[in-house]
Amino acid sequence: MAMATALIYDEEMTKYKLLWVDPACKIEVPERLTVSHEALVRSGLAGRCVSIPVRAATDEEVLLVHSEDYLEAVKKTPYMSLEDLMTFTQQYGDVYFHPNIYHCAKLAVGASLQLVDNVMTGRLRNGMALVRPPGHHSQSSAANGFCVFNNVAIAAQYAKKHYGVQRVLIVDWDVHHGQGVQYCFEDDPSVLYFSWHRYEHRRFWPNLRESDYDSVGRERGAGFNINVPWNKVGMDNSDFLAAFFHVLLPVAYEFCPDLVLVCAGFDSAVGDPEGNMCATPDVFAHLTHLLMNLAGGKLCAVLEGGYNLTSLAQSVCQTVQTLLGDPVPQPAELGGPCGSALESVHCVRSAHRRFWSCLRHAADPPASQLSTERRKASGKENNGEEGDDEQEEETEEGRAEQVSWPEPPRRVSPPVRTAVVLPDGVACPDGSTPFGPQRSHDPPTADTHGRCIALVEKMVKNEMNRFNVLKTLLVQISRKEPEGQKSKHRIPVCLKEGCGDTAGFMQAVLGLLLPVAYEFDPGVVLLARGPDSGVEEGTWQHLTCLLQGVALGHTLVLLQENERASISPTAASLLGNPAPSLGPLGARLPDDVEALERLRRMLQAHWKLLQTTEAAWPSFCPTGTAPHTQHDPMKSRARLVQVSIKPVSFTSGRVTAAAARVDSCVLVPRLPVHAVTVGPAP
Ligand code: X5A
Ligand code: ZN
């Protein structure tokens, strides 16, 4: 498969602007595109992408989503006087026209279609289109919210028509609700639309009843429209990741798209005057990474909003760098989702539980009396203080652009991405580097055990975390029964039919392992596969890929010597190749879903990212204390978290010296796996 990432940009799309005074539209400026593109050029990322020319969409393509009358009306705008343009504009909400916007809108659609063409033909792996005007608010016969034609909706229809794509996932991480996309696919089960958006119980633009969590789609499309309304501003990385772990990802894996389109708006990032959210630009690296193994890696991101030029440019860079396959940054301090976010997640999960097997055990809908609408003081952003919501918003509105945040740390591509330690006579997989005595400058540890240790040392060099302690996440996949005491740091997951049940396995990975891994924030991940684990190769690759979201991708994989066929697929995953599509996941075994739910509820007092419901709700926390407000002194001292999916046993030891830097590796030790000792100082 082709490795490259497409970047589509054309300066022409900067050549229109607001020609009159309109406070609602003044933030949508040409510089949004120039700063984003310049940042990509300056950081060297643009140079690593394949640049694809834009083209103008044809009438036929625009008509895939829009009405003829609307297209004909927009066609006349290049010839209108300023006054006529203003009048034409007035029939729509929060949008402006300009003599050149029709031309740019055709290019924005064409750019999105160029991206789809390149990705669907397999010429390029994935890509991003930097476009203006944005698209997700525009509707069949209406411009809206700076949008003229619905770029992403047209792209989805086009992919279905020209490539016979059966299932498209549209992820709309823009801070506004893409109601135009929702209207387009509401009754269409072949397009799953997910959108989170600032809502504030309908007080935020576009103030639509149908943006709430209970708009799930209709008729055959019921279940294929997922709205996560944010009812407070100030949502942060934890809130966004919680929505991914507990809503989007399980459903997306169950849905199994052939193509992923992202309405990539960055007004959901910190500093944006529209969103007033607190997610840092590096969260987009994680959002991108978590989607990159769906649809065999076929992901097309199309720019939507983003109005703080600094935060926008940084977020665009994070997204593109992740598409290029560079290791993702360490997830910033994840304190767990706030009460209001949890309430939203809870509502969405219960609204969708009848459609998706992965949500079947979601909690009942909340009693309306307990809604955040009535409890202004809940959530972290106004910590216990009573206050008038409206007034508070205005203050925050004014502050948004003055908020400061640290520039995301530079992300580096390691010189050696994946090293392998192999028994004699096993060929080194493509793209990997053999590690061992065959390289003269390596330590003279001839045995595999010694080489394992030396490799771990290399991986963690200069990557000690802020406590200056090496935290290790140990993930063991095995057929054996779990042994030893369960605790918050030792989590055995037992699946009824073992790891061969892909639906159950992925549920455990997405809903339990990843949230714990992200919150734990390890310095290194040890992923060990015991003998005859029963896990399918493709599923294993997904696990390997997904776990690289933590520990800067420092992943050590241990395979059994007799599983040589797994070496290449594993190395491919460590090298950043997308895992193969798993096919739509069937129903999870009720026993497994229930066991996992039970485990999650048990652990969520400690691991806040496991929460899917506000713990203060009576059914889950009879005492009424929210566990996530308690500080757990043990957590910062914990150095090892072990998640075992039918575990084998490991012992802790000490890692000492260090040498050159390696990011990930595959090991096929001669010794039994349990002889490898890695861990904290005693
Ligand atoms: C694409 C986008 C926002 C429109 C806001 C109007 N549109 N108040 O972010
Ligand atoms: Zn937006």
Q: How would you describe this protein?
A:
- It is globular, with a radius of gyration of 25 Å.
- The C terminus is likely disordered.
- The chain has 19 helices and 16 strands.
- The chain is α/β, with parallel strands linked by helices.
- β13, α16 and β14 form a beta-alpha-beta unit.
- The site of N-(4-aminobutyl)acetamide (X5A) has 15 residues, from loops.
- The site of zinc ion (ZN) has 7 residues, from loops.
N-to-C terminal Cα separation, in Å?
Answer: 46 Å
Class by SSE composition: alpha/beta
Strand order, largest beta sheet: 2-1-3-8-7-4-5-6
Q: C-alpha Rg, in Å?
A: 25 Å
Largest sheet: 8 strands, parallel
The helix content, as a percent range, equals: 25-40%
The low-pLDDT segments are: 374-396, 438-446, 462-469, 616-638, 646-662, 668-682
Strand content of the residues, in percent? 5-15%
Assembly classification: single chain
Shape: globular
Arithmetic mean pLDDT: 83
Bound molecule kinds, no repeats: N-(4-aminobutyl)acetamide, zinc ion
Entry summary:
The protein has 682 residues and is an alpha/beta fold. Helix content is 32%, strand content 12%.
Topology of helices and strands:
Layout: E1 5-8, H1 31-42, H2 45-48, E2 50-52, H3 59-62, H4 68-75, H5 82-90, H6 101-120, E3 126-129, H7 151-163, E4 168-172, H8 179-185, E5 191-198, E6 225-230, H9 237-255, E7 259-264, H10 283-291, E8 299-303, H11 309-323, H12 339-352, H13 389-399, E9 416-421, E10 433-434, H14 448-460, E11 472-477, E12 490-493, H15 502-520, E13 524-529, H16 537-547, E14 555-558, H17 567-574, H18 590-603, H19 633-637, E15 640-645, E16 662-667
Parallel strand pairs: 1-2, 1-3, 3-8, 4-5, 4-7, 5-6, 7-8, 9-10, 9-16, 11-13, 11-15, 12-15, 13-14, 14-16
Helix pairs in contact: 1-11, 6-7, 9-10, 9-12, 9-15, 10-11, 15-16, 15-18, 16-17
Zinc ion (ZN) binds next to loops.
